[in-house]
């Protein structure tokens, strides 16, 4: 790179340095490492402020100066507005909008994005909020599916419910019983339902996870609201 091109890059920088300062910062000719630096994810290789050597572009919120430039592809500039407070210059959006960085990528304030197929997020005031795209429904045991289980399906983003065979369910429970739960179980249950009959012996139900596997299940218990009245005795027919 020629001295003229170095000086031009120096004068065109955000600092608008005078030529004598540029000459002190930018050495001629360039002396760069043989192997370019390995940049973190989301930080591309760019030329330094002298237009001389390749460096890793600085990302949102990272310190910057004349030589260590910000990632212009993300709309970032070296912001010196806080330098007078002793904090130094940092990379910020040119229009001073708030932004957020997720997995090495910068998003503008108000921008909606999906970091994965299971989440949709929105950048807001320097942070971000997300909502799940997969339904968090609960499938209760039924006569036609007594042992439902949620599993990951290859090629699909969201897990789906399947119905296990009884022998597979028993084998899996035997394995689970041999070890303690890897997480604390926070007990939860609904109220017991009304008795299934108005008189005599019936049953009421509830949904609860109060079992050895901390798994939601439908539980039943016997109940009797009141005894049924005795049927009137049949009188023999009079001949």
From TrEMBL:
Q: Keywords of this protein's UniProt record, alphabetized?
A: Cell adhesion, Disulfide bond, Secreted, Signal
Tell me where in or outside the cell this protein is found: Secreted
What PROSITE patterns does the database record attribute to this sequence? Answer: IGFBP_N_1 (PS00222), IGFBP_N_2 (PS51323), TSP1 (PS50092), VWFC_1 (PS01208), VWFC_2 (PS50184)
SMART domains, sorted: IB (SM00121), TSP1 (SM00209), VWC (SM00214)
* Residue span(s) of domain VWFC: 98-164
Specify where it is mainly localized: secreted
Q: Which GO terms describe its biological process?
A: cell adhesion; positive regulation of cell differentiation; signal transduction
Q: Which GO terms describe its molecular function?
A: heparin binding; integrin binding
UniProt entry tagged with the keyword Ion transport: no
Q: Where is the IGFBP N-terminal domain?
A: 18-94
Q: Which domain of life is it from?
A: Eukaryota
Identify the GO cellular component terms for this protein: extracellular matrix; extracellular space; nucleus
Of which family is this protein a member?
Belongs to the CCN family.
Role:
May play an important role in modulating bone turnover. Promotes the adhesion of osteoblast cells and inhibits the binding of fibrinogen to integrin receptors. In addition, inhibits osteocalcin production.
Q: What is this protein called?
A: CCN family member 5
Q: What is the lineage of its organism?
A: Eukaryota, Metazoa, Chordata, Craniata, Vertebrata
Q: Which gene encodes it?
A: Wisp2
């Amino acid at each position: 790179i020629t001295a003229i091109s170095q000086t031009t890059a120096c004068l065109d920088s955000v600092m608008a340095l005078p030529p004598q300062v540029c000459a002190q910062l930018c050495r001629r000719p360039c002396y760069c490492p043989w192997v370019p630096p390995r940049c973190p994810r989301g930080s591309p290789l760019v030329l330094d402020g002298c237009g001389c050597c390749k460096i890793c572009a600085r990302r949102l919120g990272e310190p910057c100066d004349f030589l260590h430039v910000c990632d212009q592809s993300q709309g970032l500039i070296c912001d010196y507005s806080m330098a007078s407070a002793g904090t130094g210059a940092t990379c910020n959006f040119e229009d001073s909008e708030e932004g957020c960085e997720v997995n090495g990528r910068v998003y503008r304030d108000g921008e909606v994005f999906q970091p994965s197929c299971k989440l949709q997020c929105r950048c807001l005031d320097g942070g971000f909020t997300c909502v799940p795209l997969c339904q968090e429904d609960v499938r209760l045991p039924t006569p036609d599916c007594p042992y439902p289980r949620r599993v990951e399906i290859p090629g699909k983003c969201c897990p789906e419910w399947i119905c296990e065979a009884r022998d597979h369910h028993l084998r899996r429970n035997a394995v689970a019983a041999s070890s303690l739960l890897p997480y604390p179980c926070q007990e939860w249950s609904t109220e017991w339902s009304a008795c299934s009959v108005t008189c005599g012996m019936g049953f009421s139900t509830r949904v609860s996870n109060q079992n050895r596997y901390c798994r939601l299940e439908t539980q039943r218990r016997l109940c009797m609201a009141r005894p049924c009245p005795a049927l009137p005795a049949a009188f023999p027919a009079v001949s």
